[in-house]
Design goal:
Belongs to the ammonia transporter channel (TC 1.A.11.2) family. The protein has 489 residues and is an all-alpha fold. It is 62% helix and 2% strand. Helix 1 runs antiparallel to helix 2, helix 2 crosses helix 4 and helix 5 runs antiparallel to helix 7.
């Protein structure tokens, strides 16, 4: 007589050990890595899509949001087709990995490994073993892919309101391939800066410094917005802007908390420090606006929040809470000073139209954070994360002074590479399509570029027509904003 099967058999994928649950898999680490990746993805879609679509002038809402959305999709496809392995695969050059796909199941279901991360002493014995997280390559590829995507989206903030969308479609894969992959491999994937001991916990250099410098460089080559857009560029929806900013802030838990590649005590430190620094920076920026310009600016608060998040990123799991507060004070004041004072007095920065001030919020704050990491990195926390043993910040003596110099040099490499390569990319694209929209599109905005507008404000889907409605337009008749508290650059 046949034996009946058990009433509720356990699915193969849920068994303690099976083909879907190999011995090396840590379900907690895998779950946290996928959650972290999703949180970072939400920072872009919908976070920065909403933020960009709301912080710009009404006529550019659709175009700005769509630049972010398009970049996210394009980067993910390029990433799995060739760019992941250029960033985290086998070494081609000391600053670049070998291109290759990350699409086949044999590659994606095996245990994650970063093959060039074995750290050796000078006598060639192993100092720190190769990074082999306890989850599959598929989780690693997705996690690193959303980091690459947000970098391009942050860069886009410098050229909103005038870059030709067709040029942007070409720019995204070219810059990802020629610039981002170099920074990622050099600092994180086992390149020369990784083994030299440059500290970048979660992307202060790889993501923020590179996007800020590349954004400023791209803005130079694209050229400025229309004069009337530069003179008056009010947010079209401040409340939605705050919603996008909130998604950015909360998503940073995955941004910094996922970078140890495991759900451990260092990731907990990183998440707490991230929020301490961001909150401090937001308050300091707001206080400075009130003290000097008598008005608390909502845009200023968002900018201060962002600079705090950016500044703590290279240090998130490497510093103590008191250091995160100091970094927040500096990230809320130094980028404020460069944006509100230096920018208005430096002719070069005045000539380059950086739409959202990405240079200040990401390049200045990112480099500042990297340098401060060299000061405040705590030895015990460094030992939890870094491949170079006995690493420490300058305030802890020993080799800490050298670490500050390493941080300065590592940032200088990222700056130099991005200025040169971004310029080459822009010049090459310029031979194919114009980098800047034609004047007639710049005058009209979204309707001319996409045939779509963000808001139907004049009846049931009816577009605004000054000859019928008799209201002043978005560009004419409004009082000029007062010079003072933070405005969109």
């Amino acid at each position: 007589m046949a034996v009946p099967p058990p009433p509720n058999p356990v699915p193969v994928a849920s068994e303690a050990t099976s083909a879907a649950v190999p011995d090396w898999l840590n379900k907690g680490d895998n779950a946290w890595q996928m959650v972290s990746a999703t949180l970072v993805g939400l920072q872009s879609v919908p976070g920065l899509v909403i933020l960009y679509g709301s912080i710009v002038k009404k006529k550019w809402a659709v175009n700005s949001a769509f630049m972010a959305l398009y970049a996210f999709a394009a980067v993910i496809i390029c990433w799995v087709t060739w760019a992941y392995r250029m960033s985290f695969g086998d070494k081609l050059l000391p600053f670049w990995g070998k291109a290759g796909p990350a699409l086949g199941q044999k590659f994606l279901i095996k245990q994650a490994i970063l093959p060039e991360t074995t750290q050796l002493y000078k006598n060639h014995t192993v100092e720190t073993a190769t990074a082999t997280p306890l989850y599959p390559m598929a989780s690693m590829v997705w996690f690193q892919g959303v980091f690459a995507a947000i970098t391009l989206i942050l860069l886009a903030g410098s050229v909103l309101g005038r870059m030709n969308f067709r040029a942007w479609m070409m720019f995204v894969p070219l810059w990802l391939t020629c610039s981002y992959t170099v920074g990622a491999f050099s600092v994180w994937g086992g390149g020369f800066l990784f083994h030299w001991g440059v500290m970048d916990y979660s992307g202060g250099y790889v993501i923020h410094l590179s996007s800020g410098i590349a954004g400023l460089t791209t803005a130079y080559w694209v050229g400025p917005r229309l004069t009337r857009d530069r003179e008056r560029f009010p947010p079209n929806n401040v409340l939605l802007m705050l919603a996008g900013a909130g998604l950015l802030w909360m998503g940073w838990a995955g941004f910094n908390g996922g970078d140890p590649y495991t759900a451990n005590i260092d990731s907990s430190m990183a998440v707490l420090n991230t929020n301490i620094c961001a909150a401090t920076s937001l308050l300091v920026w707001t206080w400075l606006d009130v003290i000097f310009f008598k008005k608390p600016s909502v845009i200023g608060a968002v900018q201060g929040m962002i600079t705090g998040l950016v500044c703590i990123t290279p240090a998130a799991g490497l510093v103590q809470g008191w250091a995160a507060i100091i970094m927040g004070i500096l990230s809320g004041s130094i980028p404020w000073f460069t944006m509100m004072i230096v920018h208005k007095r430096w002719t070069l920065l005045q000539k380059i139209d950086d739409t959202l001030g990405v240079f200040h919020t990401h390049a200045v704050a990112g480099y500042l954070g990297g340098i401060l990491t060299g000061f405040f990195a705590e030895p015990e926390l460094c030992a939890l994360f870094l491949p170079v043993t006995k690493s420490r910040g300058g305030v802890y003596g020993g080799s800490g002074g050298v670490q500050i110099l390493k941080q300065l040099a590592g940032g200088a490499f990222i700056i130099g590479w991005n200025v040169v390569v971004t310029s080459v990319v822009c010049v090459v694209i310029g031979f194919v399509v114009p980098l800047r929209m034609p004047e007639e599109q710049l005058l009209i905005g979204d309707d001319a570029v996409h045939g779509e507008e963000a808001y139907a404000l004049w009846g049931d889907g009816e577009k605004y027509d000054s000859t019928q409605h008799g209201f002043i337009s978005d560009d004419i008749g409004h009082p000029q904003p007062s010079i003072g508290a933070t405005q969109v650059v």
